[in-house]
Design a protein that fits this description.
CATH class: Mainly Alpha
Shape: elongated
Oligomer: single chain
Helix content: over 70%
Strand content: under 5%
Structural class: mainly alpha
CATH architecture: Orthogonal Bundle
Number of helices: 11
Number of strands: 0
CATH topology: Farnesyl Diphosphate Synthase
CATH superfamily: Farnesyl Diphosphate Synthase
Radius of gyration: 19 Å
Distance between the termini: 40 Å
């Protein structure tokens, strides 16, 4: 059991490195693809949560099926979290975020709202390709973003993942009930409710 947990944690660390490498070395074409962004998001954020949840499940002597439910919960929670973080970078304030707003775009990082905006406005990818060192490019990219449905589409996608996370918790509860361990089962936490509320 201990070796499985070590393997899970090693995988999470490997994924963190992979995700950072993807962000730092990706080609302009790849970084404009939503599929690539979601894969990177899984590696950078969701994998750590998913593999930690699965490790905890194994350490709690749960079934392999329950451990997989725990992994699914963590994976979807992590994706929902990062998608909402992508939105808040555009809509939040420096005070609420604890960092400068628009931090990602000023650092040349293309996130989900911009990727969805690109699907609506083919004029946007060339702006992104030019980079954001020039403030004029940042302003132009933001103009396209605010005209698009990018923010709303990301919220909807985040809600899908939050709902999947909640469904995995329900399946876990059923597992615990079937093993007569409901007394030891923590009630559905407020964590996934928080992210579900953020995207409604």
């Amino acid at each position: 059991m201990g070796s499985k947990v070590v393997t899970l944690m090693a995988t999470a660390i490997e994924h963190l490195v992979t995700g950072e490498t993807m962000q730092m070395t990706t080609s302009a074409d790849r970084r404009c693809r939503m599929e690539y962004h979601m894969q990177k998001t899984y590696y950078k954020t969701a994998s750590l949560i998913a593999n930690s949840c699965k490790a905890i499940s194994l350490l709690a002597d749960q079934t392999a099926e329950a451990a997989n439910f725990a992994h699914d919960y963590g994976s979807n929670l992590g994706l929902a979290f990062q998608l909402i973080d992508d939105v808040l970078d555009f809509t939040g304030t420096s005070a609420s975020l604890g960092k400068d707003s628009l931090s990602d775009i000023h650092h040349g990082i293309v996130t989900a709202p911009s990727l969805f905006a690109m699907e609506e406005y083919p004029e946007l990818p060339p702006v992104v390709d030019c980079g954001f060192e020039d403030p004029k490019n940042v302003d132009l990219a933001l103009q396209y973003l605010w005209k698009s449905h990018g923010i709303q589409r990301v919220k909807e996608l985040a809600k899908e993942h939050a709902d999947r996370a909640a469904a995995s918790i329900d399946l876990l509860v059923e597992q615990w009930q079937s093993r007569e361990r409901i007394a030891a089962c923590p009630h559905r936490s407020d964590t996934h409710r928080h992210y579900r509320n953020q995207v409604i």
